[in-house]
Amino acid sequence: MANTVSANKAGIGRRLLRWLVNLIWFTALTLLVLLALYIGLGRQVMGNLHHFHDAIERELSAVVGQPVEITAIRGGWQGVDPVLNIHGLEIFTSDGEEVAGALGHVRIRIDSRVSAQRMRLVFREFALRDALLTLTQKEDGRIGIEGLWEPAEVLEVDPLPTAARSMTDFEELLAEWIDDLGRWLSEPAVEIQDARVGLAVEGEPLRYFDIPRMDMSFDDGVFQASGHLSGDEDEQVARFVLRGQHFFSGHFTGQAFVDLSSGRLFDALLRRYDWQNLSVDGVDADARGWF
After folding, report:
1. HEC states along 53-104?
2. What is the pLDDT of residues 83-111, one digit of tens each?
């Protein structure tokens, strides 16, 4: 009797083990089939992405709120992640007559694993080359992005100096962009090359600043970034190095190195600001340090 009970228990154990093994194999096989379908269909879609050129232009125009034109769109694949390459992207002013900003080449890699976890698109790599953007300053000192964003109108009852109001608006916009990046990026590798930023001050000649290279990446969860800014004649204006944590969450903790040499490049920008009968005629500042 005891032997029969033991044999029955052993038989149940073997059947349960066999069932678990079959379940594991079936689950693994199903996942492999789904992965193969995902990669196969993904390669097919990304390989034919150029057929959706006009539809992508319309969607981008709707998102930006201004006309967008793209020279070429190419799709690719890296590992299990789709890669999007956009060439010759131009954002026009609302009337569609002038170019407000341009991106020579944009490369975006989607993080498939994190996107599946968060149930929305999350980007792993972002590369940008040959970008052009122009900052503008109005007569009242407000700073905006030409053709893309203008700060709120200044109210006479506002007690803050014009410079403080303008910079507050710009900082709020920058904070929104960083917060949005935190939602859309997953420990990304960001690379910016040969970017050019124009500075348009009314009554002054347009001048440009170049960003030859700026990199941002994560190393074992630690955020690090570096880059530098140069003026019209390749003179170095600023360079920086950041290393720390919680950059995208809005409370960065870590170390920052800043090397600034303004020369007289920003005199025209500063002359429009005054407060309590005090104004700035020009600044020639040099600073270097770790924070």
Report:
1. HHHHHHHHHHHHCCCEEEEEEEEEEECCEEEEEEEEEEEECCCCCCEEEEEE
2. 889 999 998 887 777 888 898 999 988 88
Report how far residue 208's alpha carbon sits from residue 229's, in angstroms, rounded to the nearest whole number: 10
Six token digits for residue 116: 């599946």
As a residue count, the chain comes to: 291
Which pTM was predicted? 0.71
Going from the C-alpha of 79 to that of each of 29, 76, 139, 193, the distances in angstroms are 19, 10, 52, 25
Question: Alpha helices of the chain — where are they, by DSSP H?
Answer: 2-47, 53-64, 112-118, 162-184, 267-270
Give the whole-angstrom CA distance, residue 232 versus residue 78: 38
Any idea what DSSP says for residue 113? H
Residues 192, 103 contacting (CB under 8 angstroms): no
